[in-house]
Write a structure and sequence with these properties.
- One of its GO terms (molecular function) is metallopeptidase activity.
- This is Putative Zn-dependent protease.
- Helices cover about 20% and strands about 40% of the residues.
- It is an alpha+beta fold.
- The strands form three sheets. Strands 3-2-1-4-5-6 form a six-stranded antiparallel sheet.
- Strand 10 and strand 11 form a beta hairpin.
- Helix 1 crosses helix 2.
- The N and C termini lie far apart (about 50 Å).
Length: about 475
């Protein structure tokens, strides 16, 4: 019998039956992907994949506390199921008490579709997109542009079962489109990306038209030195900065005095104003177009994530409300340690509360400044201030008297997302966006463009 001939919910039930531990959590993730890749206005590859990963969490009670063992394996056959369960139990018995130990979650209503077959993607997801992409190739070729990029669609059905009776399921679609346009001599490059659930809301022709304009801007080149510039950050760049801020917003780390959210002298900055703009940073599993798992799915413990929290319901959470810090991420364990409310991470992020002005309107209201395309190679420099460094990429443009007048060189930047929020002079219209740097890990974001009067371009970069 093959690894995929057993239904996922049956595998979960069988693993729970095999368990001899005091507690058990089983997660079956059924994944399917479909993708297209292209280069030089020509489709180069396409493919479809299928896979299953099974994670078993065993918990063992002892005199000193409860220990946990976690083992994950892919393509587990029926004959390999019991050895996997035993391996998790052995790992638990060989471990010391788990610091994050909590009673396994109970009392969550089962998902009605728990026993149904997993959803799967296929090349059919590109039925409308692929012909439109072919037409974009023809227009680009006629206009002297070369298009490069890829489209990827993934569907993951996650089945979570526990020895305390939870039977939960979540289906997560995730699509990304990244498109680069280059001049034939490869000296000019522009990028655009989109996040989508089903590829019905992405338009290759519109993206190609946008990139054609940007390549036209780049026909005039202006060299600028490092320095602080009024800078317009598009939604994708804002998302990359604020996703890293969210990943760094650990309640426990803040209480222990190790992050930008630590209050001098002790405690956290919850309740402090981070920006004078009336911006709200929030996550909601039910956010339209950005829907994510409505309960915790934790394949491992670490930071403010705990395998003991699997199945814990998630609710809409405001991390910042009208500029005021309201919540930091916590598990049940770290909430108990810190006295902060329980607030697990949620797999989407939205910043709203700005004006209804588009990025083009913000450009038109700029005397002299820079317009970025995206950020790249972002790395942390100082966790205490959340100072990040990274590069601009695929187009930095000079704005003069409300018009883009040319392309300038790329830069290395040094900025803190918290500092950027605190100094931002304007936020535009919130729109769904694809974070370029973090698109392999986090895609569900909606952000406004930000105007920062003194963004720190710390040095000139030779990148394209």
């Amino acid at each position: 019998m093959s690894a995929r001939s057993s239904k996922p919910h049956e595998v979960v039930e069988r693993a729970l039956e095999l368990s001899r531990a005091d507690g058990c959590v089983v997660i079956a993730d059924e994944q399917s992907t479909a993708n297209l890749r292209w280069a030089g206005n020509t489709l180069t590859t396409n493919g479809v994949t299928r896979g299953r990963t099974l994670t078993v969490v065993a918990t063992v009670d002892g005199k000193e506390g409860t220990a946990s063992g976690v083992v994950s394996r892919s393509a587990v056959t029926p004959d390999e199921l019991e050895p996997l369960v035993r391996a998790a139990e052995a790992a638990a018995r060989g471990a010391g008490p788990a610091e994050d130990a909590q009673p396994l979650v109970t009392g969550v209503a089962p998902s009605p579709e728990f026993t149904e077959a997993p959803v799967e993607t296929s090349s059919a997801v590109f039925a409308d997109f692929a012909p439109a992409l072919g037409e974009a190739f023809a227009r680009a070729r006629a206009g002297g542009r070369e298009l490069y990029g890829f489209a990827n669609h993934e569907l993951v059905s996650s089945y979570v079962g526990t020895s305390t009776g939870l039977r939960l399921r979540h289906d997560q679609p995730n699509g990304t489109l990244e498109l680069n346009a280059k001049s034939p001599d490869r000296t000019r490059s522009a990028w655009a990306g989109r996040s989508t659930r089903d590829f019905k809301d992405v338009d290759p022709a519109a993206l190609d038209a946008e990139l054609a304009v940007r390549l036209g801007w780049a026909e005039r080149r202006v060299e600028l030195p490092a320095g602080r510039y009024e800078t317009l950050l598009p939604p994708t760049a804002v998302a990359d900065l604020l996703i890293y801020q969210m990943w760094s917003a650990s309640g426990r780390d803040a209480v222990e005095g190790r992050t930008v959210f630590s209050k001098p002298g002790g405690g956290t900055r919850v309740g402090e104003k981070l920006t004078d703009l009336p911006l709200t940073l929030r996550s909601d599993p039910n956010e339209p177009g950005l829907e994510s798992a409505p309960f915790v799915i934790a394949h491992s413990s670490g930071g403010d994530q705990s395998v003991f929290d699997n199945g814990l319901p998630l609710a809409a959470t405001e991390w910042m409300r009208e500029g005021e810090l309201r919540h930091l991420t916590t598990s049940r364990h770290s909430a108990g340690l810190t006295g902060l409310p329980v607030a697990p991470g949620i797999d989407n992020i939205v910043l709203d509360g700005g004006t209804d002005r588009s990025l083009d309107e913000m450009v038109a209201d700029t005397g002299r400044g820079l317009l970025l395309t995206c950020l790249w190679y972002i790395r942390e420099v100082d966790p205490a201030s959340l100072l990040l460094t990274g590069l601009t990429r695929d187009g930095v443009y000079l704005v003069e008297n409300g018009e883009v007048t040319g392309e300038v060189n790329n830069f290395r930047f040094n900025e803190s997302p918290v500092g950027v929020l605190g100094r931002a002079a304007e936020a535009g219209r919130t729109e769904k966006t694809l974070p370029r740097e973090w698109s392999d890990w986090f895609t569900r974001a909606a952000m406004p463009a930000l105007r920062v009067p003194d963004f720190n371009m710390s040095s000139v970069s030779q990148g394209v």
